[in-house]
Amino acid sequence: MLLRSMFAENYRSLRSIRMDLTGVNLFIGENGVGKSNLYRALQLVQAAVRGSLAHEIAKEGGMSSALWSGRRRADKPARIRLETELMDEERAITFRYRIEAGLRPPCAAAGFAFEPQVKEEELSVETGRRPVTMMKRSGPGIFVRGERGRMEDYPEQALQSETAIALLGDAGHYPEIGTFRRAVDQWRFFHGFRTDRDSPLRLPCLAVTAPMLDEDGTNMAAVFATLRHTRQDTVDLDRAIADAFGGAYLDVPDPGQFAEFSLVFPDFPQRPFSTRELSDGQMRFLALAAALLSYRRPPFIALNEPETSLHPDMLPALADMIASAARDSQVWIVTHSERLAEAIRERCGVRARRVIRKDSATWIDGMRLTGLIDDDDA
């Protein structure tokens, strides 16, 4: 399903921003303008679907750190509000999900002081007529559309830090909720990969078929083994590695208990280089290759500053991989690199959206309040 739009309000530097999205979404901007907060807002939607929203916000320092840091109206509650709209193009069904989370009331006994308190949630679907509410939550009470098509009280109340979308999805009785959850759960966010000596990228992994790369890259060797020995099609992967490393190729032996790989360079054809011997930039490029060229492409792939540690000569090959992934996946790229942005534009036909600060908040240069960007400014 295609992510058609997103909205975020009162989250870190995002005072209130709505964006329409396309197949390839490319963002560029200076440090400190809030590019990563746009990316992180979508991660929080996924966390809500997975039932880990409270945990994710706690890792950021709690609600006091996650809330909009600028001035807020005294007559409005301090709440983070996130919305997404997904379109199932094959069945012409639109899913809209909204969640609002705020602080614990001062006198409330339930919940911990710094964790998010979910105030409201709603999931609706639209099939060409007016939207139909499938689930609505206010405080701990949940209403859900049952088998007879009527809104009913759900027998179990949610904890203040729980999300109804996860609670109902786990119940297994609500197909529309399950469809939406599965779609969002498959999104992949690659914020960066560890490349130190003990990085999971450098270690053999259990030989288990791996159609997609884990977000920390733990199963990278298994992803390559799956492409080589299960799919038996590594044309795009071989081309990307040859282009990035001056004609090198990936050696992926038939795995036993563990999957592993090495890199063979033209200057040393008899001397495979193990993952322990490769540079940080080489390992990072290989991880990006596994993320973008896996056996099964995630429906949505987000890359945050993928050019980090890469030699500039690797950027055209990275742009080629992004264009290849965009044939099957919706792609979101945040970058500092003008060179990478230009290479993506040439291959994908999209121009970068420039992220700026406007009245102390994160904004997109040339964007209207509705989320649209004029063609001349896109």
TrEMBL record:
Q: Report the leader peptide range.
A: none
Q: Which GO terms describe its molecular function?
A: ATP binding; ATP hydrolysis activity
Q: Where is the Endonuclease GajA/Old nuclease/RecF-like AAA domain?
A: 1-45
Q: Which domain of life is it from?
A: Bacteria
Under Pfam families, the record lists:
AAA_15, AAA_21
All copies of the ATPase AAA-type core domain together span 270-340
What name does UniProt use for this protein?
AAA family ATPase
